[in-house]
Amino acid sequence: MRSLRRLLNAGRRAAAAFATRQDGGPATEFALVAPIFIVVIYATVQCAIIYICNAYLETGAETAARQVLTNNAVTTTTSGSTTTTTSMTAAEFQAAVCADMPHLFTCSGVKVGLQPATSMSSISTASPVFNSDGSLKSSLPYQQPTPGQIGILQVVYQWPVIGLPLGFNFANLGNGTYLMVSTQVFMVEQTQ
User: Fold this and answer.
1) 188: which of 7, 12, 26, 57 is 20 to 30 A away, CA to CA?
2) Position 79 confidence tier, pLDDT thresholds 50, 70, 90
3) Contact 130, 178 (CB under 8 A)
4) Is residue 116 part of a domain?
5) Which long-range contacts (CB under 8 A, 24 or more apart) does 119-128 make?
6) 176, 135 Cβ separation under 8 angstroms
7) Neighbouring C-alpha atoms within 13 Å toward the C-beta of 181
8) How many angstroms separate the CA atoms of 24 and 19, rounded?
9) pTM over 0.90
10) Is 192 contained in some domain?
11) CA-to-CA distance for 62 and 57, rounded, in angstroms?
12) How many domains is the chain partitioned into structurally?
């Protein structure tokens, strides 16, 4: 019983000494390190989100390229001796691309460009140019490649990012967004 009383008294003395301490070394160290640590964690999370969403954009663009590559973006109807081939319009193709994307993306923000190329040396995969407000300087070209032609598909999306203190900012456009671009180059299959 006496040893328990000594232990309790020692605990009270330690608690009283802790409560009356005047130094703030640990608190000062925490105040100096915590903001940097929080910013680094936030930047890491934002970088991971951008990476994952860019992977989703790539997957959606690959699915759309596969649709063109296999001639599924072109409908052929036969009536009697007349065969009619119609291509998807730009809006229809954009809607088809959006249908394969997760709900992280707004369909109105997804921009799609599709064009044929005559040879491998004539392929241009340059990113589109934007104004400072985030609007395209010129619209993306849209023309369905025919079977046997090289097709170039670009899917573009402006992902909103939040700037952080200490200069951490992933935005690469003037309107504070991160431009994600997926470019797919493929040869359209011949029809049977």
Assistant:
1) 57
2) low
3) no
4) yes
5) 119/150, 120/150, 123/150, 123/152, 123/185, 124/152, 125/152, 125/154, 125/183, 125/185, 127/156, 127/179, 127/181, 128/154, 128/156, 128/181
6) no
7) 15
8) 12
9) no
10) no
11) 9
12) 1
The encoded tokens of residue 186 equal 């493929």
pLDDT in tens, 105-161: 888 889 998 888 888 887 877 778 888 787 888 888 888 888 888 888 899 999 988
The angle at the Cα of 137, spanning 183 to 125, to the nearest 5 degrees, equals: 20
Q: Which string of b and e fits 162-186 if b means at least 16 CB within 10 Å?
A: eeeeeeeebbebeeebbebbbbbeb
In a domain, 148, yes or no: yes
Asked whether residue 103 is assigned to any structural domain, the reply reads yes
Q: How far is CA 174 from CA 2, 50, 122, 125, 169, in A?
A: 74, 18, 30, 22, 12
The encoded tokens of residue 176 equal 């504070």
Domain residues for 155?
A: 2-187
pLDDT of residue 11: 85
